[in-house]
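Show me any protein, keeping tokens residue-aligned.
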Amino acid sequence: MRHLLKLSLIFFVLLFISFSNNIAIAQQTVSETEYNERVKQLISYFESKNLDLETHLEDSRFSLYDDIGGRFRNSAERKTPTLEEYQKILGFETKKVKIREFMETYSAELEEAETSYDIPKYVISAIIGLESNFGAVIGSYNPLNVYVSMYSEDYRADFARAQLEELLIFTSERNIDVFELKSSYAGAMAFAQFIPYSLNRWFVGDDIFDMRNNILSVANYLAHFKNITGDIQGAVFRYNPSSLYRDAVLSLADEAETYFVSQQE
């Protein structure tokens, strides 16, 4: 009797495993079907805009990032409760020293930007410091792969499609191989970390890895939104809509200004 019960138990366990695997396979098939349908929608959309996406998707360098939405949901701005903890993540103490070196190296470019756009050079430098560690970090993602991944998993799909359109326009006008570009997980590029929409509207110059162009572009962007919001605090918030980010930028800018003013006394 015990032997029969044991065999029955094994049978039901095996049946359950088989059933679970079939469900997983079915879910995977549905997912792949949904993905293929969404990609077809993208291709058709861009064909209507006279933009070639399909050729890029056939490139061997095209790939999808798993759970791209999770990278947004787990960002430091969303998960860090205090400015002090956020600053620790950013390496704020190190940046307080590096911003001095950066401002000395690019003093002429920063003066030009401040004069042309009426934006404090300290704020410009602080933003580049937070965005790319003063040009040392530009990201390890590819922007086209980022936006197709976002669209395919239906995470901020409208935003992803709009940015993908801007990206294809940007690279087409400048004859840039889109797969040669590096970005953040949000598709932001260059030392200023502009998304494609911002590149097409506020980036100054053609070379996105020229530091002068990046300095002027940050100033141009901030000047535009300072005019809309009425102050530099509001403009910085529009750069990255996080109060933690805004406060970290302005705090780093204050540290730099205090240092350079003290050197003149």
In short: The domain at 64-264 is CATH 1.10.530 (Lysozyme).
